[in-house]
Amino acid sequence: MSTLPERAFGNLFVGIDHEAKEERFDRLVERRGVVIERIVSTGQVSPEGFWYDDPRDEWVLLLSGGAALQFEEDGPARRQLLPGDFVHIPARCRHRVAWTDDTVPTVWLTVYFPADAGTA
């Protein structure tokens, strides 16, 4: 995991290994409980029986590739994501990555923020 300096310019599509064996997580910004990450998947999925159960809210934008998310409360149903699709996942909403494209990198922009942040 890498972290950018205070003032940074970049491109979310630079430095992507199209044949990576593991997902890549790059922390872009972290301020006052808010974390913004780039995640790059190249066919990886959540392990069988594993569920993310984060105490923070999570907002995810799919920038490229394709993916499918599964939410525990929906049973085996999957939510397909294409470039431009986003989802807000409330804190403690158990979910998993059921599929990511293995022909092109799936690039996610993910924003984590405290569940009690409220609205503006």
UniProtKB/TrEMBL annotation:
Pfam families associated with the record: Cupin_2 (PF07883)
Highest taxon of source: Bacteria
Family matches, as SUPFAM superfamilies: RmlC-like cupins
Positions of the Cupin type-2 domain: 52-112
Gene3D superfamilies, alphabetized: Jelly Rolls
Identification of the protein by name: Cupin domain-containing protein
Organism: Paraburkholderia dinghuensis
